[in-house]
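Pilot study result, target chain (321 residues):
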Amino acid sequence: MRRTELFLLCASIAACPAPEDSGDDAAGDESSTGTVATTTGDTPDTGGEEEGATDGGSEDGMEGGSEDSGGSAMGGCGVDPGLSGDVSGQVEIDGEPRRFLLVVPEDYDPNRQYPLFFMFHGRGSNGEQFRQYNGVEELGTSDAIFVYPDALPNAIQMGQTGWDLTTNGIDVALVDKLIEDFTTNLCIDEERIFATGHSHGGFFSNALGCSRGDVFRAIAPVAGGGPGQGCEGEVAAWLAHHPDDDVVPLVLGQVSRDHWLETNGCGEETSPVDPDPCVEYQGCNEGYEVVWCEHMDDSMFGPHSWPAFAGPAIWEFFSRF
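Predicted structure:
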């Protein structure tokens, strides 16, 4: 989705003005096309055994940067992409069309750098369903760009949609491609790229923090597990897990927490942070804090829950960076 391809999305919804400059060529093996946004009546992910369960600030802090002092475009900065609001798009990865929902502020300013939030749904779900309940986007409608990719049916997940957690897998390739395209065509602050996800999306958030620690600034897995081995770099991490989770056991969330504590050089001492009962570990490498929320909120999906406090707390945590 280079600039010319991005504008195909505009054509598909007949809502975007003609660009002043769409001269970038669309060379490359991958392609993208526009699609009309749709929603489904399916229920959100409420659980199911996860892959890996068997494998052993303030809102002001998110306000974007200033106009490039040199007056020239950096990546997609300084060029009006001619789109805003909800845009459904598609890219091709290894010959497979991949759908995503892109949410751009209605008052998008091409001279302002925006943080980019990747939002990953759970097994058997899709991006639109995760959007309905995560509670993060509603706090950042003017201050961030959100992308909700859809996973593919996954044999390991018994044919339901699920994420490929491997470093060189198709879903990491999808994320790499989307980052490349968005930073080319939109004004993205490349120092503030974040990921959050529920359940299997939490596993994938951890996996990206591991394999793309040099790209992602912070992650927020909820009711997830992982990551694997061979991690690169550090990410700040906010994690939440219910002790009675009967889909992804608590111990897998604790393993995730302990991984980031070790990676980020944290000590064992904690101090309470909002919201209760979250705690923040002390002594972490500066800028790479770890927050752990072992909660009892089972109001949404039972103990395999996305707690009601998660959206505001994740937004506040990401706003630090």
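One observation from the pilot: The chain has a mean pLDDT of 82. A full batch analysis is planned for the follow-on phase.
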